[in-house]
Amino acid sequence: MSTFGSPGGAQRFSKPTPPERGSFPLDHDAECQAVMKQYLRCIRAHKGVNDDECRTLSQGYLQCRMERNLMAPDSMKNLGFQDLEKARLAKMSKTDGEVEEKKG
Amino acid sequence: MAPLRYRSLLELARSRPQQWTCNTCATTLKRPQWGAIQQRRAMQTMQQSRQHAAANMESVRRGFDSKNSNTLLYAMSLIIGTLAVSYGSVPLYKTICQQTGWGGQPIKSAAHAYPDSEQDIAARLTPVTTSRRLRITFAGSTSDILPWKFSPQQREVRILPGETALAFYTATNKSLDEDIIGVATYSVTPAQVAPYFSKIQCFCFEEQRLNKGETVDMPVFFYIDPEFLQDPNMKGIDTITLNYTFFKAKYDKNGHLAPIPMPH
């Protein structure tokens, strides 16, 4: 009703859209609080910039929730962590290569 | 010309309604354009000339009748037409804008296009490393009748479009006597960013029950759709604020969760 009389170009959709995967169940027992505190410390240290380090921690938090049945399990790709996964795999294969070189 | 004897218009109208003429008509109708006959009549008395003028006055009026009705019809149609256009302009404007996409109205909005494949989701959740970082600030508030303390745990997060981010709010039920159910709604400012602000998971729209004295962390997992960068309306926007408001809720007679309205 607040858009009555306004031109049609305003992109204000008055209905807020619900979240894609619904609502997080409440973490009443604070099971994942340690990871959360780590993540918040990281954010504060990086002055809010969502660095890869902090993103890894947020990934860890979501994994903690999934393990404790506080979140529907989902692949990391669907949660936007695919580039982190790729970087991690690349690093792992690189270190594997280095270890093999050392051995051989 | 000798000055006319004063007569009240009412007297004239009552005595001789057919024959009354206004002074202007009387003098103008006496002019030579009516021909030589009139010139001779100008010598006659005022009464007689007035009578002739009265006869001509009627004919003059008759000539104007059709013109008057024409004018009236044109004027009425103009007025009604203006009224109609002013009433219809609102939906008309909206329709035209939606069809032609004027003023940036998207024909198909990014937020409403549900991805149908994994690749789409993965493509949308890729951080756009070439863009500027958007600053997301957080605000939390509660309804006056809800005895909860509700605040964000971080002041701001700087993210790239397409990058998923986690944010936390903490809520404390200050009431020591009862468990309270709260329902949260959110809003995003500036308002035009709302279609691009996608939440993967959060704690809104569903009941959140806090036991007495309990403190709980509530996460929000969200991202800004990469199509944000293509929209010219979003060019100057660097700061986005996410507002959460908690309301007290209860189960009504049908078992549905309903918010308790704020007291006024």
TrEMBL record, chain A:
Region (Disordered): 1-27
Classification via InterPro entries: COX19
Chief location category: cytoplasm
GO BP annotation list: mitochondrial respiratory chain complex IV assembly
The family this protein is said to belong to: Belongs to the COX19 family.
Domain of life assignment: Eukaryota
UniProt keyword terms in alphabetical order: Cytoplasm, Disulfide bond
Species this protein is from: Extremus antarcticus
Role noted for this protein: Required for the assembly of mitochondrial cytochrome c oxidase.
Name this protein carries in UniProt: Cytochrome c oxidase assembly protein cox19
Localization terms from the record: Cytoplasm
GO cellular component: mitochondrial intermembrane space
TrEMBL record, chain B:
Location(s) in or outside the cell: Mitochondrion inner membrane
Pfam families according to UniProt: CtaG_Cox11
Major localization class: mitochondrion
Membrane association type: Single-pass membrane protein
Coiled-coil portions: none
GO cellular component, one term: mitochondrial matrix
Gene3D superfamilies according to UniProt: Ctag/Cox11
Keyword Transmembrane helix: yes
GO MF annotation terms: copper ion binding
Keyword vocabulary terms for this entry: Membrane, Transmembrane, Transmembrane helix
Function: Exerts its effect at some terminal stage of cytochrome c oxidase synthesis, probably by being involved in the insertion of the copper B into subunit I.
Record PANTHER family: CYTOCHROME C OXIDASE ASSEMBLY PROTEIN COX11, MITOCHONDRIAL-RELATED, CYTOCHROME C OXIDASE ASSEMBLY PROTEIN COX11-RELATED
NCBIfam families in the record: PRK05089.1 (NF003465)
Protein's recorded name: Cytochrome c oxidase assembly protein cox11, mitochondrial
